[in-house]
């Protein structure tokens, strides 16, 4: 690994830590996903077989707000498919949350996504996808206090790609996928002066919502 790559990686890590620390409320989620693909009118595209993968997402909320921003990075792969493929995608968009029950928060995010897929063939096909996506799920808190919590997260991410570019050539057709996921979520309000505005962090003592 080159020195430039290490420097850029460390810079991104420090920026992420800084944003997480300065945002009044943040969720960091780590999940396993199952990729169920769909395609129509495409001869070259990922989405030929189901795949497994990993999902990392970050939710940030301004002070005293149930509306925030979600940023997601995920990957799915199928090594035993014919041909084998690896898919990476990025998603960002506004998220809307609502308290469903004591310790349970639902969320809905909508926004654009970009995917990059590599297919292991004789010519190593590289495909880019651009479209829209929706992320719907819920957090189930089971530990925490006024400034942090730990939760189980369940959800489904669905995307629909309108633009496909295969080896710099545009290909017509539609493709999409549904990715149910399950994992763990860590939430924190590092700015302790604002914790009184975040009663949702009081998981057990007491549970207050407004």
TrEMBL record:
Q: Give me the segments passing through the membrane.
A: 84-108, 147-166, 178-194
* Annotated keywords: Membrane, Transmembrane, Transmembrane helix
Q: Report the source organism.
A: Sphaerochaeta pleomorpha (strain ATCC BAA-1885 / DSM 22778 / Grapes)
Name of the protein described by the UniProt record: Outer membrane protein beta-barrel domain-containing protein
